[in-house]
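Forwarding the complex inputs:
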Amino acid sequence: MNSSQQTQRQESDRQADKKWYSPIFSRPEIGPLGVMLILFAMLGYFSIPEGEFSLNPFSGEGFNALGIRNNFRVIAQLGIVALAAGMLIIAGEFDLSVGSMIGFAGGCMAMILKWGFAIVIPYISFKGGFHFEGLKILEITNVSPLTAILITLCFTLAFGWFQGFLIVKSGIASFIVTLGGLFFLRGVTEVSYRAFNRAPDQTAGSTTVTDLPDIKNIINVPGHGEMERDAAKALPNDQLLEILSTVPAHTIAKITENLTYVNEKVAANKTILAAKKMIGTLEKSLEGAKKSGNESMVEILTKKIEAGVDVPAVAAKAVTDLDIAKAYIDTIITARPVANFFGGDIMEPVFSWLYYTADWNVNLYGNQFAKGMYSCLMIWFLIALACYFILSRTQAGNWIYSTGGNLSAAQANGVPTNKVKISLFMFTAFCATMFAACQVFEVNTADTAKGNLKELEAIAAAVIGGVVLTGGFGTIGGIILGTIIFGIAKEAFFYIPGIDGSFYRVFLGAVLVTAALTNENIRKRIMGSV
Amino acid sequence: MNKKIPLIEIKNLVKRFGNFTALNGVSLDVYPGEVHALLGDNGAGKSTLIKVLAGVHPATSGSIIIDGKEGKFSTPRQATDAGIGTVYQDLALNALTSVTRNFFLGREIKKGPGAFGIMQMKEMDNITIEEMAKIGINISDPTQAVGTMSGGQRQTLAIARAIYFGAKILILDEPTSALGQKQQMEVLKTIKRVQKLGHIAIILITHNEIHARLIADRYTFLSLGEVIGKGLAEELGGDDIKKLMAGGTEIGDLRDELGA
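Prediction (whole assembly, two chains):
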């Protein structure tokens, strides 16, 4: 220790004194956080119908139960690929093939689920004239969802590895290599769709796979085996009652209680709707009377409206055994957990509680509004958690930051930078596959246009969230905020009265450039003080 | 400490690149606790000598003996393992991350499987503060970005890192170039402290004769790939050093030449 030095003026003395709020405002995430809160407020308040002023932002269409469910689906899907894109940019590279990879993975999965999987070696045969034959090495039909995902992962991860390998070994800019990947994969996907749809029972030239069974909703119905939920509910009445006879009494009691609540709620809402309708009619006549100057009529109608209308209360429907049977079928747990993991719903108990107990998740007709959140939200959350952990806590995270921040320094200190980059290209491919799995199992179709432009949206979301394109700088929290901004802007602008909805693009463009300037500024401030 | 035994002995080192002889039989002894200044004009072979010692280029012939053991390096890793720590001019630091993350870059202390092991941040922070303090820099905040540090502090960080990871022979490649006056002094103080630790041999490459005279114990002068002079600091006069640095020619009457 050099005690004489401590009394001297030191380099650190030149820094201005830190205020209590300094640590908050020096975080790169503070800007995106502000923009996100503004967008949330806009969406909340502008989506409240005209004339129904409320301080509660959850009363509008934007943040009612269904609004939350749908908005967070868009955000979560983009979020899955934005995390991968962000991590890759932090390591100093790009991947423009993400969007095409989503289309490819979705097509691959859907085709395997529909037609099975086979490895075929083509060879030339001269028997009966020159032609090609195929030698089938391996063939699986009736592929399970998990197998379909794993086979798809083999393709996508291999492609991601190949792109990364090419980039680190050749030194060609990742922009060009992955731009090649973008065209290549989209082309391969389109060609494959057409080739497989040439079968006699398919629409020739179609670039979609439709008519997949609703895999996530395949359930084990007592006495009937595995079948789709909707098919089970459409069974003849006597069979439904037969199913009901296998259900224990306390379950029936619980279902009956819930159904009674629903029917009463529906009846009550019907009564309110009827009253509203009558008032509406009266108000219309009042306006007509005012226009024609019929004073006595205006007086009568005003009094009537003030007194309010008295509509007879709609009686609640009785709960029948068939209703109970159908409701019971709805509660049967899926027999395909993997498909449900990607394409199903989560947080159903929460949304039920919101309906039955909190009395909020109710639509206009008194039914439950949203069943739950889309599963992709959970997958986004899981991937984000893993990314956060890896980037900020592990050795790999330090390697990723240094690979992007100063490549030669990282190499000089023994960081395997090539491995880091190739792994991240593979991680991008993995995330694109997860995105595709969520889509395929949710809507049970796939088409060649899926994932279009997602590569650019993902990069934009990462940049808005504070990632610097030259690498080495950015956080997972920032990427998440950027994704939410990107996902919510469209909805928020849609509800602003008297404004063209497409202004959201203008807004996003401006936010993107502002964010890039701010990020660069922060980076220079950190780099620059020698 | 017995200063008679050199920590590293370089004997008759020859390095040829094709027809070009970069080093033509260079011999050099460096003792622990001493600063050995390696001086010479551009193209004298200083950089080649460091690169051979650091394992970047293998030697054509000759031997490097460290602690009595013959060293043959074909990769930088082997040189590092043998105890040779090289601090290059660019310092190999990532300015965007914290002091601790740079200190342990590539050699993080972690618990857990492979690259996904959790970094032991507290422990690493403490070691960083301790090691930096040993050679004279007190950093209050090991989480500050390296980019916010001064050039002298960065140099200290790179030196402390090399020593902590087992460097017995520290090669400093022009550590004072591209720094301001005050920071040059800071770096020289740091080198002095390393010298005082007593067990580390320092090879200091520099262009700056004044800096060399401030801290060097021993000199070796290179010119055109050969040693043209060597000696202890107290044996050499200022004029000798000036002359040898310029590769043996007289520059004493430079003033006259310029005046003419």
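Residues 519 and 525 of chain A are 10 Å apart (CA to CA).
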